[in-house]
């Protein structure tokens, strides 16, 4: 783990960051995501899992826009562990909190970057007997390093290939609470 950051350093990161998507743009994207998900899943009584930690804010703001019966759960899988680049292995810190055998499952996460996290989570859901597994992310990062063949079913916004934070995404553990999507200066 790298050294901890001071409050001043963290405020400087925020002050110097580039705003890529405003709060209003994110909220409009969540409205569209919710409409697309509703059209596909309204009659399925799905289980909707957020992937902790990043999926927490997105799922929180998405779920109240879904006006059909669903169950909600969480799971915690991480590749980055507070760093700004991925570790080789995915670490499971909490398994799925609600049984999914025979169910339609929707996985909600903040970002589709290389896609190895979502790929492993989808495989885990299938192994646990889910009938159908769909994925939704707020942000799709644009680059050519995606896990081969990995696709996401519902995407809110596209962002450039930089390290981003806000709306659930962290900068070294902080600023998940930022009300927009920001790119760290120099990253
Ligand atoms: O597409 P990938 O390259 O696999 O990266 C995307 C994943 O990275 C982040 O999780 P992270 O491991 O940082 O954990 P966190 O949710 O606790 O921030 C994010 O929340 C996604 O789950
Ligand atoms: N916070 C954050 N987490 C990520 N996980 C994968 N890519 C990113 C990113 O750009 N920002």
What does this structure look like?
It is a single chain. This protein is an alpha/beta fold and 187 residues long. It has one domain: Rossmann fold (3-Layer(aba) Sandwich). It has 4 helices and 9 strands. The chain has a 6-stranded mixed sheet with strand order 4-3-2-5-6-7. A 3-stranded antiparallel sheet has the order 1-9-8. α4 (116-127) links the parallel β5 (104-112) and β6 (132-141). The two termini are 18 Å apart. The site of guanine has 8 residues, from β8.
Strand-helix topology:
Blueprint: H1 7-16, E1 18-21, H2 23-41, E2 47-52, H3 55-63, E3 71-78, E4 91-94, E5 104-112, H4 116-127, E6 132-141, E7 154-159, E8 164-165, E9 181-183
Parallel strand pairs: 2-3, 2-5, 5-6, 6-7
Antiparallel strand pairs: 1-9, 3-4, 8-9
Helix pairs in contact: 2-3
The structure holds 1-O-pyrophosphono-5-O-phosphono-alpha-D-ribofuranose and guanine (GUN).
């Amino acid at each position: 783990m790298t050294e901890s950051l001071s409050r001043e350093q963290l405020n400087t990161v925020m002050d110097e960051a580039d705003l890529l998507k405003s709060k209003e743009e994110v909220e409009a994207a969540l409205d569209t995501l919710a409409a697309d998900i509703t059209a596909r899943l309204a009659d399925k009584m799905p289980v909707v899992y957020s992937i902790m930690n990043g999926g927490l804010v997105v799922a929180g703001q998405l779920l109240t826009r879904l006006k059909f019966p669903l169950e909600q759960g969480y799971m915690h899988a991480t590749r980055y562990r507070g760093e700004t680049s991925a570790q080789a292995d995915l670490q499971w810190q909490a398994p799925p909190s609600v049984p999914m055998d025979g169910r339609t499952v929707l996985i909600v996460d903040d970002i589709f970057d290389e896609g190895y996290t979502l790929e492993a989570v989808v495989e885990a859901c299938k192994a646990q007997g889910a009938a159908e597994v769909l994925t939704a992310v707020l942000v799709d990062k644009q680059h050519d390093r995606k896990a081969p063949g990995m696709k996401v079913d519902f995407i809110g916004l596209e962002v450039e290939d930089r390290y981003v934070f806000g709306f659930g995404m962290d900068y070294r553990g902080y600023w998940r609470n930022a009300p927009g999507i920001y790119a760290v200066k120099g990253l």
